[in-house]
Structures are given as structure tokens and as C-alpha cells.
Amino acid sequence: MSASREPQSARSIVRPSRLASIAAGSALVLTVGGLAAAVGQADVVTPRSTPALPSRAAQAARQAAGPTPVAPKVTEMPVASVAATKFPANVARTAPDQRGSELVAHVRARVHQASVVGVTWSRGTAPDGLVVQVRALRSGSWSDWKDVHVDPGEGPSADEETTVRDGTEPIWIGAAESVEVAAYSPDKTVPQQMRLQAIDPGTAPYDTAPPSQTTTATTTASKAGAFPAMPNIVTRSQWGADESLGDRCWAPRLGSAFKMVFVHHTVGSNTYSRSESAAVVRGIYAYHTESRGWCDIGYNFLVDRYGTVFEGRGGGIRQPVRGAHAGDYNTDTTGISLMGNFETGYPTAAMKSSLVRLIAWRMGTAYRNAYGGAIVEGSWFRRISGHRDAMSTACPGEHVYSWLPRLRERVADQLGSYQSKIEQEWVDRGGPKSSWGPVRIGEQHEHHGGHTTFDGGRMYRFDHETLAFRRGPVLTRFVRSGEIDGDLGYPVSETRTPRNGEAADFEHGSIYWSISSRSHILKSSAIMKRYRALGGATSDLAFPTSPVLTTTSGAKANFQHGTITFDKSSKRLTVTYE
């Protein structure tokens, strides 16, 4: 892991300019951005808010234009420390007793439009056994107290993110009027700089658009035993990710391969509605970046109780993006979080089915199976593991963890014995232990062909032929030109080595490279056809030194030892040697 990174962006604190006068012995009530808190008389409240949401007119205009970023509003305030034996007289003692622990911090706050809350504190200052509880006021009635999950091992590796904050998981409280937080410590230690985080995730077009009307990353379903197509995935732009949040993530941003999956749960609400799912994701994203100080949301994917799959951490759905979900085991692994608390609740059938399809796609296109194991940072894990297999945590909850053996069976059944032509070619050439190495970006089918990226190069399947390209100048230029989405299309030959250079042919042109001429693309044309007929780079012209250039009389291409010109009026080609 890299020891250097871009500096964290500064997080400004907005301090109140004016406070109401307070009578002796009374509670301090401060309202900022629609949030009010009642705390002990000795407490100082320092709230902070991100920029306000755009106006309704602006939101309507953006919605009409398509998916747009949604700026969340994050407000934080201290969770006041209290004497373990003397609760502040001005606050009713409503928090339940915790056997073997004493109440050490408390706050009650009004939350207007903030539907996601969490509690954070300075890294490494929480005692073992810290318990944080939250309850919400809705329609004049308080809910029962609920434990908020505290996982000290969650997030980035400790040696790379030294300025982040520890905290609870964020929880969805929905349309609540107020929240109350109580923290208990077995040794009376109070975490330093303990703060309540209240997040308004805003509204995105996706929130009101039925899933059938929303264009997701793909709409292709796959049958068991066939090529594992990508399931429907709601992209970051669709769920309203504000890409200005967070900062540059540590290198390596990407892993070198996909090895395994860690299954998580968000430990949040199990009762959110379908229209609230994207807001839950935006709330988690804002909490991870703005409240915890991470560079991005921790998970690679999230799955809601309706079976909707959301793209998590940015960097590319197909890429081996390094997340922040399993401490030291984030590289070359994919973190998928089920949205809910599955220590107390049960995953829905729709959620399970979507998880099966998502993992089958991830595994199958990387030529992995559902069983066996992988070594990550020197430790062995099952190919499909729970978070608790890597760290001391209850995640992904007992009712998901106990289902993992069945999950592996269902993924294996979904994959069947199918093997693509590219996978067969890769296996024939030695598979992961060969110089081709493991799959870096899984197989993708598009434009009537397919392609897979390996650690040592790429393979393409087109017109009933599989062609392999090692890493090198021709492949680099092909990728830079847009690969199969560019003007050249699919390869129709492998790389050859004329005159100690490189050359390869494509549907709509060729790429040539030598040390002295560098790389050049000759697109399909009369000039390129004549050059090929002469022998290409093996001819007396040698390598191209320019692409086909448009001239007043037609076109021209320059070579190391001559030119080929085309006269558009006479339709005549002229080869000149130098």
C-alpha cells in the first residue's frame, strides 16, 4: 500500500455568530440548518453544514435534463459528555440502563429533513465495549432505543487513512422530528470529540422514477449455465452521487485482479420504501465521506430489500476498484453490502436473488467459481465470505451469514459449467499461473464480440476467432483510441513483429509501431489498402510516420522511406520512394 496520497480536503467548521441568552441552569438550544439540540449547560455546540440544496426550481430544471448530482446537507454537533453518576438536571433520564456500563454521553436533537444519522469520534479513542443507542421521535411518540452498530475495523486500512474518524454505522430514521443519542462505556471513558451527524440526502430524479422507467447500466438477464450478463445496476449518476464529496483515494486506486467477495450489511433500517432506497445510499455516501472523512463510499455495491443493485465506490463498475469495507483486505476484493440489519431481520427473496446474480456476474466474467478460496494479504478466505471472516464483527448479520453456504450453491448453479471461448483460450495458454496472469477486468460482450483484460494483456473474440494481445505499444495505442468503441473496431489479427516493430490489423484499419517512428493508425482507405498490398511495414516504405492526412487534392500518408498520395479527381494512387 502506498505511503503517499493527495492531501485531505479541508473541512471547515461553521460557528454560530449569535446565541440566545441563556438563564442560569437552563439547557442550551441551538438551531442551525434546521437542527436543534438540547445539551447540558456546560456544553458548547459547534455545528457544521455543507452547502445548501439548490432551489426547487433548479432541482426541477435538472430533473428534466436527466440524472444530476444531489448535494447532501450534513450537520454535526457535539454529543455532550455527562457525569456517570449525575445526569444533567435539565434533561430527563430516558435512556435505559446498560448492565456493566454507565452512561457517559448524551444528546437530544431536533432533526428537520435529516433522515440519516450517525455518531462519530476521534480515531482510536473509544473504549472496548462502547455501546451507542439511538431513538427517534415520530408523530409525537418516541421509538424504542436501538443499538447502533460500532465496528472499529470497518473502513480503510489503519496505515493509510490516518486522519479519518471512527464511528457508528449510519442509520435511516426517515421522517423523524427529533433523535436522542446515549453512549455507554464499561470503564467510564468518553470517546474524544463525539459528534452527532445528521444528514439530509436531498432528492434525486431516481427517487420518483419507477425502476422500469430508469435506464440502468444494463438490462440483460442471464440464464443459468450461460454467459453471466451484468445485472441491472443503478449507476452513481442515476442515484445522484455528488462527485465533489470526499477526496482522492490512496493508491492503488485499482487492484490487479478480482479474487473474492465480502458480503456486508449496512446495519440500518429494514423498513425503508422503494422510493427511499437511493436516498439511503446517498446518506451512506455523505456519512462515509463528510462525517467519517473517507475518500468515497466504502462499498463497491449495495443491494436494497427490493432487489435493486446500486453502484457504490467510483472508478468503474467492471474495474477491480479498491473499496474501504474490510480493513487490510480491500485490495482485489469486492465489498457488497445488503441494505438493512440482518442480525435482527431477514433478507428478502428479491435481495437474495439480486445478490446471486451480482456475484455470479462478478465471478463468472472473471473465470472464478463459487467455491474454493483466495489468498488476500497473506490470509486465506472462501471465495464468497462474510465480513466477520476477516475481522471481529457481527457483519453481515447472523441471518445472512448462516445463509452463505446456500448463497455459494446458488451462485454455482447460476454459473453452471459454462466456459466462454476467451476463457478456453486463456486456460489453454496456462490460465492464471501463466504470463497472462489473472483476470483484471471481466469478460464483456458488446458490438457482436467479446473481450477480457488480464494482468498480462487482453483477448478479443470476434467473427468466431479469439485473438490475444500482449501488453505493448500496439495494445496501448488501441486502448487509447477507444478500443472497440473507437474507429478501429475489433482486431482481425494478432500483433506481428515486422522489422523489430509491431503491427496489427482491425476491422477498420491498422496500427503500426517502431522505436523510431512511434505508433500510428492508418484507417481503412485506398492508401492503407495499397500499403498493405505492398507488404506494409516489410515493404521499402517501412513504417508510417503519419496517419492518412487530408490534402487539397485528396489524401496523403508519410512513411519512413516515402509517401503514398491519393488524387480525388483522378482516383489515382501514387507511391513515391525516398
Backbone CA Rg: 29 Å
Give the integer mean of the pLDDT values. Answer: 84
Label the CATH architecture of the largest domain.
Answer: 3-Layer(aba) Sandwich
Gap from first CA to last CA: 53 Å
Structurally, the number of domains stands at 3
Strand runs, count? 32
Range of helix content = 10-25%
The gross shape turns out to be: elongated
Uncertain ranges: 1-65
The total count of helices amounts to 10
Tell me the fraction of residues in β-strands, as a range: 25-35%
CATH topology of the largest domain: Lysozyme-like
Largest sheet descriptor = 8 strands, antiparallel
* CATH homology-level superfamily of the largest domain: Peptidoglycan recognition protein-like
Category from helices, strands and their pairing:
alpha+beta
What would you say this structure looks like, in words?
The chain folds into three domains: 28-50 and 62-200, no CATH class; 205-415, Peptidoglycan recognition protein-like (Lysozyme-like), CATH 3.40.80; 421-577, no CATH class. It starts with 27 loop residues before the first strand and ends with a strand. Strands 1, 2, 5, 6, 8, 9, 10 and 13 form an eight-stranded antiparallel beta sheet that branches. Strands 3, 4, 7, 11, 12 and 14 form a six-stranded antiparallel beta sheet that branches. A five-stranded mixed beta sheet has the order 17-16-18-15-21, with helices on one face. It is of the alpha+beta class and 578 residues long. The protein is built from ten helices and 32 strands. The chain is 16% helix and 28% strand. Mean pLDDT is 84; it is low at 1-65.
